[in-house]
Design a protein that fits this description.
The chain is an alpha/beta fold and 471 residues long. It folds into 2 domains: 317 residues, no CATH class; 130 residues, no CATH class. The chain is built from 23 helices and 6 strands. Strands 4-3-5-2-1-6 form a 6-stranded mixed sheet, with helices on both faces. Helix 2 packs antiparallel against helix 13 and helix 4 packs parallel to helix 5. The longest helix is centred in the last third of the chain and has 23 residues. It is globular.
Length: 471
């Protein structure tokens, strides 16, 4: 059954890259005030707003947008499992003025016994840093902009989580050289499930205090991203139909149509790119944020918005080549396994069933295989729980890197054996540089653990590496 599951392993190994790079018209973005840069990563990851923040931030917030924000606040505060309190008798006016927005957000907090919540909307929101004025007035009667409302909601969530010592901790190590250099190592799981956000203040502070943040890929390099997008499509005059069986091609078109993708678009993409998309989608669930922001993309946005220099260990071309150089037979199997994870085998039509069986064998549709697939999808959720709680031992047990390395799967050596040494060397070079520096390195958690991983690799070179204590 191993052939059905390769991509799920990659969630702990590869950079967070969308498999299908969308093309569209460039949007003219209205500049966002510099004071708001710190809000963007957290607000977006929490789902308080989407891309409309770039063009509508100075417009008065709509009731629909306010309702979205209050629902996010309600959902996030409910996760804190605070004692509830009786609702106040006084009815608060909720509208699109600053005061109305304050009231709307306060009502969600007032359902719980947070310290000081009984003092009322204005006093409580001010005390937790979610309401500020211009020095003379709180301007509660003035229309509230989308950005102001988002800032209030974001500050309310973060401050109340900080107050309760809550938030995702991440799989985090601290490496030192004994002479002033420190490199924090954050093992990423490249997805957004199990209510990943917000991050704990300890982790947010480590990001913002870094002199440099390094990822597997430079998510801000548009030239590299364009190169990767080009790698995903056929450029030799062929289409997907020329590289896989007619039956599997038709099955791919049918499944893609259910996801809103037309045949003309699908036919351009290589089998591995489609497989990556289908299997990635299978890992998302109702606990995924509305913007589905993977861990490393959040850290990148947080650091970039703070003006922190960004570096990368690998390139998009290198990572794309890992899949692009897979054998044609493996790519066909990879695509079929992706389709298998994206469909309900109990309701799919006979032609699609036959196409999957032709590539994967009769066992693909057997109940035991379906149960195994669901079990591994569930493991992603379990891995994310270990990530949120900084349970390194728990992650290592679920991930089982040793078993992956011992397998004969074509993809495994490309994902691990060929990549771990370069990451270890990058970390060692950072720690050995002259002077005093504090950096943060964010790569797949699978690269951090095990005998061949970054943590052990640095220890073997004489560096001190320890799990960062939980706050």
């Amino acid at each position: 059954m191993r052939k059905f599951f390769a991509l799920l392993l990659a969630l702990g190994m590869l950079g967070a890259t969308p498999a299908l790079a969308a093309e569209g018209e460039e949007i003219q973005l209205e500049p966002i005030p510099e004071w708001a840069y710190g809000v963007l990563a957290d607000g977006y990851s929490l789902g308080l707003f989407g891309d409309e923040i770039y063009t509508q931030h100075s417009q008065t917030v709509t009731m629909e947008q306010l309702e979205t924000m209050t629902q996010v606040v309600a959902d996030k505060l409910a996760l804190l499992e605070m004692d509830t309190r009786a609702a106040a008798d006084e009815s608060l006016v909720i509208d699109t003025t600053r005061g109305g927005v304050v009231n709307a957000l306060y009502q969600e907090a007032a359902a719980y016994a947070f310290p000081g919540v009984e003092e009322g909307a204005e006093a409580f929101m001010t005390s937790v840093g979610a309401l500020a004025g211009d020095g003379d007035s709180l301007n509660l009667d003035r229309p509230c902009t989308l950005l102001e409302a988002a800032t209030m909601a974001d500050s309310l969530i973060l401050n109340l989580y900080d107050q309760q010592n809550a938030g995702s901790l991440g799989l985090l190590w601290k490496a030192t050289n004994g002479e002033g250099n420190t490199l924090y190592l954050l093992g990423s799981i490249h997805t957004d499930v199990n209510n990943t956000y917000p991050f704990h203040k300890q982790l947010r502070d480590i990001i913002l205090d870094a002199d440099q943040v390094t990822f597997e890929l430079d998510f801000n390099d548009q030239a590299q991203i364009a190169e990767f997008a080009a790698m995903q499509v056929y450029s030799d005059g062929t289409t997907l139909a020329d590289h896989i069986s007619p039956e599997l091609y038709q099955a791919t078109v049918k499944v893609a149509a259910q996801l809103g993708m037309d045949e003309q678009t699908i036919s351009q993409y290589k089998a591995w790119a489609l497989a990556t998309s289908f299997q990635s989608l299978a890992t998302l669930d109702e606990t995924t944020g509305s913007n589905a922001m993977a861990v490393d993309l959040y850290v990148n946005a947080k650091a970039a918005n703070a003006g922190i220099p960004i570096d990368a260990v690998e390139t998009y071309a290198f990572q794309g080549g890992i899949f692009d150089n897979l054998s044609p037979a493996y790519q066909e199997t990879y695509l079929a396994s992706g389709l298998l994870m994206a469909v309900d085998v109990n309701t799919v039509d006979q032609e699609t069933r036959d196409a999957l069986v032709a590539v994967l064998g009769e066992e693909a549709l057997e109940p035991a295989t379906q149960e195994a697939i669901q079990a591994q999808v569930d493991q992603i959720s379990a891995m994310m729980e270990t990530w949120k709680n900084r349970d390194v031992a728990g992650f290592e047990k679920i991930y089982n890197k040793e078993a992956i390395l011992e397998s004969d799967d074509e993809l495994n050596s490309k994902l691990f054996t060929d990549r771990d040494p370069g990451m270890i060397q990058y970390a060692a070079d950072y720690l050995s540089q002259e002077g005093s520096h504090t950096g943060l390195m964010v790569v797949g958690a699978g690269h951090m653990v095990g005998d061949t991983g970054i943590v052990q690799g640095l220890i073997d070179q004489g560096y001190t590496v320890e799990v960062v204590p939980n706050p």
